[in-house]
Amino acid sequence: MSALAFTVRGLGFWTPGYPDLAAWRARPDTWPEGQAPPTEPSAPKAELLPPMMRRRTSLLTRMAAEVAAQALQDGGVDRAAATLVYGSVYGEIRTTLDLLAALLVAGEPLSPTKFHNSVHNTAAGYVSIATGNRAGNAALSAGRSTLAMGLVECAALVAAGEGDVVLVIAEEPLPEPLAAGRRWDPFAAAFALSAPVPGDMPARTCRLEHGPSDMLPAPRPVPAALAENPCAAALALVEALAAGAPARIALEPHLAVGWQCTLGAGA
Amino acid sequence: MQPYPITAMALCNGMGDSTAAVLAALRAGRSGLGPCPAEFELDAVVGAIPTPLPPLPGFLGPVRDTRQTRIAAVALAELQAPLDRARARWGSDRVAVVLGTSTGGIEASETAYAHAQAHGGALPADYDVETSHALDAVLHVARVLGGGLGGPAYVVSTACSSSAKVFASAQRLLAAGLCDAVLVGGVDSLCRLTVRGFAGLEVLSSRPCRPFSSERAGINIGEGAALLLVERTGEGPARLLGVGESSDAYHMTSPHPEGLGARLAMERALRHAGLSAADVDHVNAHGTGTKQNDSMESAAIRAVFAGATAPAVVATKGYTGHMLGAAGATEVAFVIDAIAGRYLPASVGADPLDDTLAVDVVTARRDVPTRAALSNSFAFGGSNCSVLVGGPA
C-alpha cells in the first residue's frame, strides 16, 4: 500500500438547512424556479463546545466543531487523542472584518475576545479545550487547493504513524466590502482518516495521486451558491465517500493537472 | 525520525534587510527594536525592517504586491542559487513550499478597508481579497519567485507557532516521499490589527521587551521573513532532528500555568529524534517578555531537563520583537547560526535576570559549541511546537 493511502472511517457535514450528512444526501435534485434551498438554521448546534464557550464563537468555528464531532463519532475515533487538521481559505474572515471596523471606523480599542478569535486556528483551539485533546493540531490554507493540501498533510500524518487524523474543511461567506461581490454559502465537512488495514472498509480506502483532473460529472447537483464556495471540491468528496462506490474525485478541479483521490483503493 | 539537512537560509527583520546584516547584529548583541514607522500611526516599540521594501516585479501584478509579499521577496532573493540547485537536482515538482504566516496580507486589507469607507464601499484598484489578503497569497509569490516550485504548497497558520510547525509538515512530506526538498519558513508584516490587538490584551510593552528579566513589561511586535531549505540529502550547516507538537487544551490566550503543553512539545521533539535531554545544550525560548510566559516556560524547561545538565536558555525576541507567524522559523535560523558559529547570542534585555525562574539564561554572548538545541514556539489556541536542530552529521 502506498504511503499516500488512508481509510476514511468517519464523515461529518453541515450547511444551512442540512444539519448532517443524512439530511444533505436526502436533498432534492432540483429546486423549483425562484425557490431557494432551505437556509435555516443559520448556525449549527456545535454541542461539542460548552455553551459558555460556544456563544463567543463564529459561524466558522461552530461549523468546524459540529462536523468534527460528527466525524469523530461516525468513525468511533477518540476525540481526546486524534490529531485534528483544519483547512479554510479565508478562516475567521467575519471576525477579522469586525476588527477592521473597530480599528479603522470606530477607532475603538480592540476586543481581546475578537482578537484571539480572529486567528486561523481559532476552531482548533476551542475544540482542543472542549475535548481535552493535547495532540498537535494544525490550521492550513492553500486557496482553492485547501482540500487537496489538507489531505496531503493528513496522509503524511497517517504515514508517520500519528494514529487517527481528522481533516475539517470549513468556509464561511466573505463579508463586504472585502468580498467585492463574491458570494457563496457556508459549509463544513470532516473526514476521519486512519492507516488502511487490508480488507477493512475497502470502499472507504483512498489513494492520493497527482495527475489530470478528469473528474466524472458530479453524481448529484448542488445549489449554485454552494458550488461557488472555494472549498466546494469537498462536496464531491464527501458525497462519493458516503455513497461508498469506487470513484475518482478531482481535489483541485480548478487545475488541469492536480491532486486526485481514488476511492475503493482497498478493494 | 530520519534527520534531514537544512541546506540554506535567508532572513530579514528589524535587525536588517539581509541575512548577513541580521546575523551580524545577533552576533554583536545589537537589538533591531525601535519606534514604529510613522505610516502605521501607532505609538509602539516594534521590530520593523529598517529599509524601504522594493516593490514586486511587475509581472506578478499590483494586487499581489503587499507589504507581506515584499518581505517574502526580500528573503527569497537570497535563496535563488540554492533553489536553482534544488530544482535542478530534484525536479521542480519535487520541491514543496510550506510557509507559516499569521498576518497574511491583512496590512493591505486595512488600507483597502479604509479606502472603501472613504469611497462608498469601493476597494482600491490594487487590492483583491483573494490575492492580496488571503493567507495563501504569499505561496504564489514564493513559488514563482522561487523559479517555479511545483510540489505541494500550503500555509500553516496557527498564530505564533505557525513557522515552527512548518518544520513538522516538511519532515512528514519528506518521510512520506511526497517531495525531496521543502522551502519552509514564515513571513509576517507589521499591521495595525496585531499591534492594537495585543494592546487590547494589555501585554504590549512601551519599551523594548526584556524576556526573563525582573524588569520585563510585556512584548513588542516585529515583522520579517525567515526562509529555509530542507532537503532529503545534502550539505548544510545544520540538520532537522525532530519536531514536537502539542496543545495546551487549557485557554485561548493564557498558557497552561505549569507549562504542560510546552513540556509535551519539547519531550515529543526529543522522542521524535530518539534523543534525551542530556543531548541538548541550548534552548531558544519562546520568551515573549510576559511574566506568564517566562514563568510557565521556565517550569517546562526545568521539568524536561530534570536529571540532565541545565541547558543554556537564549531569548531572542529582544532583537526582533515577536514576529508572530514568522517567529518560529526566525528562531530556528538563529539556532542554526549559533551551532555553525559555535556561540550563544546574548539574550538582549534579560539582564538583570528574574532569579525566581531558576533557568540558565544567557545574558552575555558565550563562545561555546552546541550539539543540539530546541527552539520553542507557543501560540493562541494553546498551540505549541518545539523544533530540535543539530549540527551536520
* Count of domains of chain B: 2
Output the CATH topology of chain A. Answer: Peroxisomal Thiolase, Chain A, domain 1
String of helices and strands of chain A: EHHHEHHHEHEEEHHEE
Give a count of the beta strands of chain A, DSSP E runs of length 2 or more.
Answer: 8
CATH class label of the largest domain in chain B: Alpha Beta
The largest pleated sheet of chain A is described as: 8 strands, mixed
Number of domains of chain A: 1
Low-confidence stretches of chain B: none
Question: How would you state the average pLDDT of chain B, rounded?
Answer: 97
Radius of gyration of chain B: 19 Å
Strand numbers in spatial order across the main sheet of chain B: 5-4-6-8-1-9-14-13-10-11-12
**What is the name of the CATH architecture of the largest domain in chain B?**
3-Layer(aba) Sandwich
InterPro entries (chain A): Ketoacyl_synth_N, Thiolase-like
Organism (chain A): Nannocystis pusilla
Domain Beta-ketoacyl synthase-like N-terminal (chain A): 30-200
Protein name (chain A): Beta-ketoacyl synthase chain length factor
What does this structure look like?
The complex is a heterodimer of chains A (267) and B (393). Chain A has 267 residues and is an alpha+beta fold. Helices cover 31% and strands 20% of the residues of chain A. Chain A has helices at residues 21-25, 51-54, 59-75, 93-106, 112-116, 122-131, 146-159, 224-227, 233-243; strands at residues 5-14, 83-87, 138-141, 165-171, 187-194, 205-212, 247-250, 257-263. In chain A, strand 7 and strand 8 (257-263) form a beta hairpin. In chain A, helix 3 crosses helix 6. Chain B is of the alpha/beta class. Chain B has 2 domains: 4-231, Peroxisomal Thiolase, Chain A, domain 1 (3-Layer(aba) Sandwich); 239-390, 3-Layer(aba) Sandwich (Peroxisomal Thiolase, Chain A, domain 1), CATH 3.40.47. Chain B has 12 helices and 14 strands. Chain B has helices at 19-28, 67-78, 80-90, 106-118, 129-133, 137-145, 162-175, 192-200, 260-273, 291-304, 317-320, 327-341; strands spanning 4-13, 34-35, 45-47, 95-100, 153-156, 181-188, 221-222, 224-231, 238-247, 282-284, 312-314, 360-361, 372-379, 383-390. In chain B, strands 5-4-6-8-1-9-14-13-10-11-12 form an 11-stranded mixed β-sheet, sandwiched between helices. A 3-stranded mixed β-sheet of chain B has the order 2-3-7, with no helix packed on it. In chain B, helix 2 packs parallel to helix 6 (137-145), helix 7 packs across helix 12 and helix 9 crosses helix 10. The radius of gyration of chain B is 19 Å and the shape is globular. The relative contact order of chain B is 0.18. Chains A and B meet through helix 4, helix 5, helix 6, strand 3 and helix 7 of A and helix 4, helix 5, strand 5, helix 7 and helix 8 of B.
